[in-house]
Amino acid sequence: MSPTLVIQTAFLGDVVLTTGLLAVLAERFGPVDVVTTPGAAMLLETHSAVRQVIRYDKRGADRGFGGLFRLAGRLRKERYARVYLPHRSLRSAALARVARIDERIGYTGAPGAWSYTRRIPRPGTGHEAERILALAEPPPGARAKVSLDLTAEDRQKAGAWLTTHNVGTPFVAMAPGSIWGTKRWPGYGELARVLDLPVVAVGGPEDRDLSAAIVAAAPGRAHSAAGELSLRESAALLERAAVLVTNDSAPLHLATAVGTPVVAIFGPTVPAFGFGPRGPKDRIVELVGLSCRPCSSHGPRVCPLGHHRCMRELSVATVVREIASGSLAPRDD
User: Rg (Cα) of the chain, in Å, rounded?
Assistant: First the structure.
């Protein structure tokens, strides 16, 4: 059988949410190949629905037309029967067309829809995981199975990190970062101080300063893993956490994929965009009724109105109540 390709070069969280589509396509056609960003490649390399991951450094070594044509030439040699395009990107559409893949499946209304051979209506509501799954035209009501396949080594390294830092269970994981400044809730340090449990801050190297503030607020009880673990190792650490408190950012979806309860804090964006938590024990914290939110699809780097009330007015006590509803008790002081 000729292989199937999926091109998904959007944000890290989008790649995680695409795993539901990958699983369905693998059941139908066998393990699929995936073109994705270098940053996301590690998450998919061990996934049982994936045959191979093809890195596309669209903003680095492969940027521009030269990089697109080089990759298209490589894809052409694979003789793919079909390609699915969950990322509504003109560049992804052009890549599929130049690679001469006969069947190109994407969303009606996407910038490159004119080049598709099959156009699927994109659901206007619901979670993004199901909107992506819609490309496979599943039965009505089908739920995407978002997942990661972690290795024994991933889990061993996460466990070794926790042991080295004397972090026992249960512990609370916190993800204070986001590439969008207005998505960052300022209360993580105070939250770490009032919780009577070990705390582990997670994130990339760019989140070290935010994580250090959490450690400083609860010395001896809070620890930072930011920049110390790979993406899959971080997911393995989240798998062990009692709960993850996070902004609207990629760690939310990593926790979803490994089955860890989430308390998700939304400010400039809203869960109705389709990127909220999905589990039965998950909680959402947001300032309802604020007329200026949502202010953009991703959340701007700074508040357009200068007050950032959507995050500043979300109290630590509110977040603590949501954590407590998941059987984690706060300190009395």
Answer: 21
